[in-house]
Amino acid sequence: MIKLENIIEFIKDQIIQIEGSYQGVEIEGLADLRNRNSKYLDWIHPNSKRPQERAETSKSKVIIANQDVYYNDSMKNDGKILIQVKDPYLTIANIGNEFFAQKEKPIIHPTAIIDKDAKIGIDVNIGAYSIIGSCVIGGNSIIQENVIIRDCVRIGNNVLIKSGTIIGNPGFGFVKNEKGEWEKFPQIGNVIIEDNVEIGSNVCIDRGALSTTNIGYGTKIDNLTQIAHNVKIGKNCIIAVNVSIAGSCNIGDNVWIGPSATINNGLTIGSNSFISLGSVIINNVPPNSDVIGYPAESKELFVRKRLALVKLLKRK
Predict the structure, then answer these.
(1) Are strands 131-132 and 262-263 parallel, antiparallel or unpaired?
(2) Which residues is 233 bridged to in the sheet?
C-alpha cells in the first residue's frame, strides 16, 4: 500500500489541481480497463473518448486526468478524488515506475560467464547463463538471462538488454570467389549502444563489417528484431516487434518503425519519420515522412489509391 500523499508529493510538478480530500488515502495498484478495485489509482488517457463519463463511472476512488475532466457533483457524492495533470499518460508512467515496478537487484549471477578483461560499471545486473566477452558495460545497466555480448561491444549507462539477445555477432556478408563460391567478407567492426537504450528479447544486433553498428541514446527496440552490420540508429527511436533492418542503413532521430517493417540495404530514414506496420522500405525516406505499404509510399498517396480502387470496384 502506498500513501496517496507520497504519490502527490512525487508528481507535484505535474499537478494542475486536486479536488477532494486525500489525507489518509492509500493506493494498492494502478488500474487498467478491467479495474474493479476502488483502491487502485485510475487514469484517463488523453485520447480517451468520453473522458468525463469514464471518470464518473470508474470504480476507483482516485483518478488522474487532464483538464478535459472536471470535478462535478457525481464525483463529489461518490467521494472521489480528481488529480488534474498536464499529461496523464506520462504521469501514470512515472508513478508506476517509481512505486509499483519491480526493480532488478544489481547482482551478477554465479552462472554468468564473464571475460576477465570485461569492464563492468557499478550497480550492473547480469542474469543467469549470460556470456559477457571482453566488452564494456556502463553503470546501472541490466543484462537479463541468456544474453550474449561479444568482445567488440561497448554499452552505455542505464541500458536494459532482455533475455536471449545476442549483440556483436559477425554480420551476414559474403563475396563470390573465382570459383563462384561464397566467401565470408570480414566482419571486424564493433557495436556501440548508447545510454538509456532498451533492447527486447531475442534481438540480434550484428557488429559492423569494417566500421560500427550504433544504437543512439534513448532508443527502444522491441523483441525479435534484426539489426544488421553497419546500421546507424539515431536518438529516441521506437523500433517495434519483428522489424528487420538490413546492412548499412542510416536511421535518423525520433523515428517510429512499426511491427514487422523491413528496411532494405543502405537506405536512409530521415528524422521524425513514421513507418507503419508491415511496410517494406526500398527507397530513402525523407525527414518527417509518414509511409505505409509494400513497397512503402506516403500514407496520403496510399489512402488516395485505396479510395480510387474502391470506387472502381463499385462501378463493376
Answers:
(1) unpaired
(2) 215, 251
Task: Let me know: does 126 contact 108? Beta carbons within 8 Å.
Answer: yes
CATH no. for 2-100? 3.40.1390.10
Write out the catalytic residue numbers: 229
- Residues of the chain within CATH 2.160.10.10 domain(s) are 113-301
Q: Cα dist. 137→80, 102, 110, 119, 155 in Å?
A: 47, 22, 18, 6, 5
- Rounded Cα distance, 29 and 236, in Å: 29
What is the distance of C-alpha 101 from the center of its chain?
Answer: 16
The values of phi and psi at residue 36, to 5°, are -130, 15
Q: What is the full DSSP assignment across 245-293?
A: E-TT-EE-TT-EE-TT-EE-TT-EE-TT-EE-TT-EE-S-B-TT-EEEE
Max CA distance (Å), the chain: 85
| Fold category of 113-301 in CATH | UDP N-Acetylglucosamine Acyltransferase; domain 1 (2.160.10)
176 grid coordinates: 563470390
Q: Could you read off the pLDDT tens digit of each residue along the chain, which spans 316 residues?
A: 899 999 999 999 999 999 999 999 999 999 987 877 899 999 999 999 999 999 999 999 999 999 999 999 999 999 999 999 999 999 999 999 999 998 878 999 999 999 999 999 999 999 999 999 999 999 999 999 999 999 999 999 999 999 999 999 999 999 999 999 999 999 999 999 999 999 999 999 999 999 999 999 999 999 999 999 999 999 999 999 999 999 999 999 999 999 999 999 999 999 999 999 999 999 999 999 999 999 999 999 998 988 988 888 887 6
Q: What are the backbone angles phi and psi of residue 227, rounded to the nearest 5°?
A: -120, 115
